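Give me structure tokens for this 235-residue protein.
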Amino acid sequence: MLKIIPIPALSDNYIWLIQHQNEVVIVDPSEAKKVLDYLAKNQLNPTAILLTHHHRDHTDGVPELLSHYPSLEVYGSSEVSELVTRLVEPEEHFSLWEYEVRVIESAGHTEKHISYLVGNRWLFCGDALFSGGCGRVFTGNYQAQFDTLQRFNALPDWVEVYAGHEYTQSNLKFAQAVMSDSCMLFEYQERADILRSHHKPTLPTTIGIEKQINPFLKAENVEKFIQLRQQKDNF
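Here you go.
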């Protein structure tokens, strides 16, 4: 069984480590030092890096990690082509240990954003999906982002969601403003507040939970999504 480890980085990023025995795969290393310290302390051997998109708060640690571990395989889309050793395309499949990884097209936040679904259970989605929210549509291509959310909506409810940022509390404030009251939303907000008061991550969430508390996943058409996203941008 895989173990997923959060490494808080910068002001609100998470670098995710996917651990199998004494090996790890690093997801979106925004900085290197915290990763290197964790690897050394726990005597772990990194084998690969997965990149979701090109923003520097997801990639800045790559060069230094490669300087320490030059044989690391770096996976990513064409928008991070200068960093990758293994270019991957949407709906491509590859293996990490005995687990199959599906590359999911996740455009909208950036043009070639991708997500990685590992073992049909663990989703590493960068800034395409957050708990209670989704990434800003920097490309202006709202249709692409809406389509991305529909791909996530189609995943099994049990899939665990490992997003790139700790945005849950602010996202839930918006969700409460635009959605009708529900016990689920209230309880989830309360849980997030308690976890953060103890400096613990609110992630992972699950696709099943997000279908209930995430207004963007509930948007029934692209027009409604655009309205919500523009509301959130000015919230």
